[in-house]
Design brief:
mainly alpha; Prepilin_IV_endopep_pep; 166 residues
Length: 166
Amino acid sequence: MFINVVLFIVLGISVVTDLRKRKIFNIITIPAILFGLIYNTYQAGLEGLYFSSIGLLIGFFLLFIPFVLGGMGAGDVKLLAAIGAMIGGELVFQSFLYTALIGGIFALAILFKKNRLVFFIKNIWFSVFYKLPILTEPEKKGKYTIPYGVPIALGVVSLYCFGGLL
């Protein structure tokens, strides 16, 4: 399918720019959103527009709260919205589940690499089991971030390779 070719091109470009510049550019995501809306409308009329619009909204709102809380970039939100506009609501949600799992693995790997994994586990242990406030650790230089375009792309690839999780 032509839309899948465009989807994987958009994902590939987004991964490269996210790794190199730590940004997913509007020049990629906005045309991808428009393409998804137009293509699906052309293929199935108003049903296609509905299919694409629902996917766009679901993709957008799945990452909107993490974005508002500062844990995600706007490009990541728009990329998932573009994916939703192309493949619809059900598939974007399924790819998001893979994305969340892969993103969690990336986060644990970064914590392990920065020697913060033990502190993280202690923090969870004390806050959940002892109802104590979250432990604080002296500030370390540098902010740990994940180029989340990579887990998003891997989530979509996983969906196509392994099928849905639900």
